[in-house]
Design goal:
single chain, 442 residues, alpha/beta, Monooxygenase, 13-stranded parallel sheet, 39% helix, globular
């Protein structure tokens, strides 16, 4: 064998034997867990590559609400790999979509308890944790299962909170007490935490007036390094804005969702927003409204002191002849013409024409670069916008429109849109991300 080995020349070996570690690591990075395991059996060098920290920094585990045998096996395998290589993990995302019975939630809770326990012992690198859309207020989460999961997560955050930079618990749907228990775990050691990005949108159950809770205000006072914050409007209060002033040197973005089923009638003083905007000079606020379309409600929320960058108004196809969008478009939104950069409008305005109002609003908002509209419009509205863009009356970079019509056949409108596109083709291709269609709602 020694003599035969001496006869083997380097040029006779496979090119894979000379592949640099950096390139080989990149090849492994694209492989799934099963293929990585098989590749690790090829030789000692490839086996060592299996233990490269670069391969295990990011992991996503998806638990199906209606699992098959194949999917169950994949989940078990994914959890096993996280436990084995957990010491390298920096970013963990867990998804558990629409479980349909308590057996699945129990299995998820037990699996997560073991996974989090293992990571809390072996990992000291985790920076990011995302567990979204658990909807813990659903009946499939029995009280004992829910309590056990919250305890496991709280214990894990107590140990890992001092290093965690990003936490996303969007859609958890907890009570105020349960939600604050988990968030308080982040500051268990030092009475403060280092979280810079926090997503607690839909974190609390519907119908809860979180803004009235002293416990929530106390919990949020432990966050001193926030750069980005996502939450619902039912959490906003003058006291919360005062606490956020402690993050003035770092705070850049606040994303606020306001849903019709969430309490949103609280009074917020404009001076509270003004103080926060004055201290957090780089702050941008983005509002997302769902089925809150009446001018009176919007005007109570959208105060002129808020440094608003983006507004999204969605009626979710609901039509209400008792309200008009015209006052909002004429009187309210132009208040933010000096700061508004993104505008999304999805509403059923079958009872009123808004073409002129929308066109004037776009022209008045000189910083507006993104405009998306789903509404009943005349096709000529598209040409008016493109004409204004050509004449430099607006500076859009993204223009998306779904033009609703009550007609079953849309051939005539489609033909008109094609003619408009041909007329402004050079402008569209050079300046715009452009998408316009006619949509029949018959």
């Amino acid at each position: 064998m020694d003599e035969e080995s001496e006869l083997i020349q380097p040029q006779d070996q496979s090119c894979w034997a000379f592949l640099p570690d950096l390139c080989l690591c990149r090849v492994f990075w694209w492989l799934g867990d099963r293929d990585r395991s098989r590749a690790a059996l090829v030789c000692r060098k490839w086996n060592q590559m299996m233990y490269s920290a670069e391969l295990w920094r990011y992991r996503t585990i998806t638990f199906s609400g209606r699992p098959s045998r194949v999917h169950a096996s994949e989940v078990e395998s994914a959890v096993w790999y996280v436990k084995k290589f957990g010491r390298y993990l920096e970013h963990l995302e867990v998804k558990f979509m629409n479980p349909y019975n308590a057996v699945l939630t129990k299995k998820f809770q037990v699996t997560m308890r073991g996974l989090l326990s293992c990571l809390s012992k072996s990992n000291n690198r985790l920076k990011s944790l995302s567990i979204q859309y658990l909807e813990l207020d659903r009946l499939v989460w029995r009280n004992s299962i829910r309590s056990s999961f919250i305890s496991s997560l709280s214990f894990f955050l107590k140990k890992m909170g001092k290093r965690l930079d990003y936490l996303n618990l969007k859609g958890a749907r907890l009570t105020v007490e349960q939600g604050c228990q988990i968030l308080d775990s982040l500051s268990y050691v030092r009475n403060e935490n280092v979280i810079s990005e926090l997503n607690i949108e839909d974190y609390f159950s519907h119908h809860l007036a979180v803004y009235n809770s002293p416990q929530f205000k106390k919990t949020m006072s432990t966050f001193h390094n926030l750069v980005s914050l996502n939450l619902n409007y039912n959490c906003i209060s003058d006291e919360l804005l005062e606490n956020l002033c402690e993050n003035a040197s770092t705070l850049r973005t606040i994303n606020i969702k306001c849903h019709v089923h969430d309490p949103h009638g609280q009074v917020i003083w404009g001076m509270s927003w003004a103080k926060l905007a004055r201290q957090a000079t780089n702050l941008k606020v983005n509002f997302f409204f769902e089925r809150i379309m009446k001018y009176e409600r919007l005007a109570r929320i959208l105060l002129q002191e808020i440094p608003i960058r983006s507004i999204s108004l969605r009626s979710c196809y609901f039509s209400d002849p008792d309200y008009s969008m015209r006052p909002t478009l004429i009187d309210l939104l132009p208040t933010f013409r000096h700061t508004l950069q993104k505008l999304t409008c999805e509403f059923n305005n079958n009872h009123e024409s808004l073409d002129d109002e929308l066109h004037l609003l776009i022209i008045s908002c000189r910083k507006l670069f993104y405009f998306k509209i789903w509404a009943f419009l005349d096709v000529s509205f598209v040409e008016r916008i493109l004409k204004s863009q050509k004449e430099r009356q607006c500076a859009l970079r993204v223009f998306k429109a779904r033009i609703y019509t009550n007609r079953y056949e849309t051939n005539e409108e489609d033909k008109t849109l094609q003619e408009i596109y041909r007329k402004y083709r050079k402008l569209i291709e050079s300046e715009l991300s452009y998408f316009v269609i006619v949509y029949s709602v018959m």
